[in-house]
Amino acid sequence: MTDPRFSTKQRILGAAEDLFARRGFAGASLRQVTSAAKVNLAAVNYHFGSKDRLIEEVFRRRLDELNAGRLAALKRALANPRPELEDVLAAFINPALELCLDKEGGAAFVRVLARAYAEHNERLRKFLSDNYGHVLKEFAAAFAKLLPHLDKEELYWRLDIVAGAVTYAMADFGVIKRRSGQSEREFRERAAEHLIRFAAAGLRE
Amino acid sequence: MTDPRFSTKQRILGAAEDLFARRGFAGASLRQVTSAAKVNLAAVNYHFGSKDRLIEEVFRRRLDELNAGRLAALKRALANPRPELEDVLAAFINPALELCLDKEGGAAFVRVLARAYAEHNERLRKFLSDNYGHVLKEFAAAFAKLLPHLDKEELYWRLDIVAGAVTYAMADFGVIKRRSGQSEREFRERAAEHLIRFAAAGLRE
DNA sequence: CAACGCTTCAAACAAACGTTTGAATTCTAG
DNA sequence: CTAGAATTCAAACGTTTGTTTGAAGCGTTG
């Protein structure tokens, strides 16, 4: 994050991601961010314009890739002539899991994402819905085909619950801690497995 | 909230609850709180000592009652010789639902509670676990009896997922909006029904 | 090397922050 | 009615906040 191989912009984004995850958008100051990134305070306003726009860029950097991954995984799942419910769930969850495990700062970002929900910030919600709403639409359509016994309202309710459970579990808000012998990857993969099985059961009824 | 029938202390707690829900703990300032409560700025430090202790009191005021309600409902559910899984889930969820619907500011508080999860704040987590951890233990024991086919680890995973879904749904982080013809009460009760059915299916597998 | 645009920098800005103070006011006993 | 405690109040404390400024440094291009 402070690695001088990375550009000033990247270092700021990395430090902001980490601090927003740990202290929230209001709780993390630009001085804390720039000091962690080892850049000058004014660099944020030079490169991003304002703190609000920095927050948006923290989202954009990850979500473009995450949502592309989710759509690609969905496409692969639906290539199968008789896709299983679990496959579509995995198409939604696994790219987020990979983000957590493989990308530097990915785990922090997932917590930032969960914070965005809690913020209830209209500006932020509009930004997310404008830029990434179509992804959720495509998944909703796929689930609708696999669950023809559910009417539209019933389906939306359940998807909303699934989204909540996924967000919460990925951000490890829960109380379950990784066991000492267990690797971070093992732990996360187990969490995803449980999540998929649980959500599938709840969706099917 | 600004009603002069209420004491200074109560007005501060009410205003703080509302503003913490909307802007977070760091995002809501004591000046905003005292101005909304129509009390003097210094009143917070006079009555509570500090902002941190005000935050704790916002939790304590509601959680004492909420958790007492949950334990009472659990006891009633277990009075039945063959209690259903749905009854225990309802014992956990319905008191939170009542808080949302019947208590002034209850809906705001549920969102404050969801923020506490997002905060990952060690001090806050310890406070909550010290004061209300025993409630979760009792529910876990009740679920364990009803789901003997699940080993301890499996059960804890699923309860963690349920807790996440409940928190998320109660704080209405989701995208589902109340229909125009529907009352807040109807809407919330539907949400709780869906939640119980979904969670029961996921727990039973 | 000179001139240029891009980036970094230390310093300062006004505003807002949590907290403290000491005097004014209100309430409560005796 | 009065003494003393409890509460409210305006004002100020020293920090920290996001943002702006103008000069200094940098690498590229003519």
Keywords, please?
homodimer, 205 residues, mainly alpha, 9 helices, Arc Repressor Mutant, subunit A, 2 domains, DNA-binding
Describe the protein.
The structure is a homodimer of 205-residue chains. Chain A is mainly alpha-helical and 205 residues long. Chain A has two domains: 1-49, Homeodomain-like (Arc Repressor Mutant, subunit A); 57-204, Tetracycline Repressor, domain 2, CATH 1.10.357. Chain A is built from nine helices and no strands. Chain A has helices at residues 8-23, 30-37, 42-47, 51-79, 85-102, 106-119, 122-146, 152-170, 184-204. In chain A, helix 1 (8-23) packs across helix 2 and helix 5 crosses helix 6. Chain A is globular and about 55 Å long. The termini of chain A are far apart. At the A-B interface, helix 6, helix 8 and helix 9 of A face helix 6, helix 8 and helix 9 of B. Chain A binds a DNA duplex (30 and 30 nucleotides) through residues 8, 29-31, 39-47, 50-51.
Q: What is the secondary structure topology, with strand pairs?
A:
The structure is a homodimer of 205-residue chains.
Chain A: H1 8-23, H2 30-37, H3 42-47, H4 51-79, H5 85-102, H6 106-119, H7 122-146, H8 152-170, H9 184-204
Helix pairs in contact in A: 1-2, 1-4, 1-6, 4-5, 4-7, 5-6, 5-9, 8-9
The structure holds a DNA duplex (30 and 30 nucleotides).
- Helix share bin of chain A: over 70%
Low-confidence stretches of chain A: none
Written as H for each helix and E for each strand, in order along the chain, the element string of chain A is HHHHHHHHH
Beta-strand segment tally of chain A: 0
The CATH first-level class of the largest domain in chain A comes to: Mainly Alpha
Let me know the largest β-sheet of chain A. Answer: none
Oligomer classification: homodimer
Q: What is the CATH architecture assignment of the largest domain in chain A?
A: Orthogonal Bundle
- Looking at CATH, the homologous superfamily of the largest domain in chain A is Tetracycline Repressor, domain 2
Per DSSP, what share of the residues of chain A sits in E-state strands of 2 or more residues? under 5%
Total tally of structural domains of chain A: 2
Categorize the overall geometry of chain A.
Answer: globular
